[in-house]
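writing this on my phone so excuse typos. first protein, seq and then structure
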Amino acid sequence: MSTAARPQPSNAPAPAPHVRPATLADLDGVAALFDAYRQFYEQAPDRAAATAFIRARMEAGESVILLAEDDEGVPCGFCQLYPSFCSVEAAPIFVLYDLYVAPAARRSGAGRALLLAAEARARAEGRVRMDLTTAHSNHTAQRLYESLGWVHDEVFRGFNRRIDG
């Protein structure tokens, strides 16, 4: 009597999400993530506005959007980079304004993969630095940034001014 070997459960970690540049074909998936990102920062859900905003950035080439997909090709995170300049260094930089990973994909390596892909893109384009801001209370993201060598700015203090129509 022979017995077939039973498959053993794997303790290997799931593969890290795949990251690639988003295109207009990805608009619906990116817009859904962008709307969720805005809700994370206490904005009302507005899928139409999220779609219009992302479409405008993509069509005008005003930002670089990197999309993370799980092993089934489902969008699970994104980051958006805005090309800018540093006057002090007289060099081009990226402002990493948006980074979001869907709750179900958190702790999958998606955030890390997006940040590393953003860094590779910045290097390939000759950017000398990336800047980002996050909520003071977003300690999870801050730990991730620091683990990848991002440094908390102790020199400059950020300000903003709301401009109403």
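second protein below, same order as before
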Amino acid sequence: MITPAYVRTMAAYNEEMNRRLYEAASRLSDEERRRDRGAFWHSLHGTLNHLLWGDRAWMTRFAGWPASGVPIKESDCMIADFAALRAARVAADRDIVAWAAGVTEAWLGETLHWHSFSADRDMAMQRGFLVTHLFNHQTHHRGQAHALVTAAGQDTGDTDLFLLVPEIR
């Protein structure tokens, strides 16, 4: 389904896009970042929190990261302070890139067994499929955050993967 090279490319893309998104978000006031703009996770701050929460949840399963202890319904308020949220995002992205460097074809082909608290049941699926979900989840919610930051008058620059690949490799 996917290759280790794909995982490394997407991890680098994720890191770069988060850097651009947080830079744009940092130019907004805290009030603007927290304003409920009708997004699924309410605000830009809430959406950024949920995005980090999701990455941590999957990396708990993939790489043994510690669980956040925050339920999904509260993920939008996991970290209150924007500077702390940004620092946690930078650390998570660095660690995702490091994890991606060690992903192998064999590991991607194995089955992962876990308990999904959001689905309230035990699950088992191929790791490669779940890694694809990790990157899809990132892109989905980062797209929402991008729309929020753009609507607030900020620019992140190019967001297309094909335009960024030469910069991130």
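The radius of gyration is 16 Å. thats all i got for now
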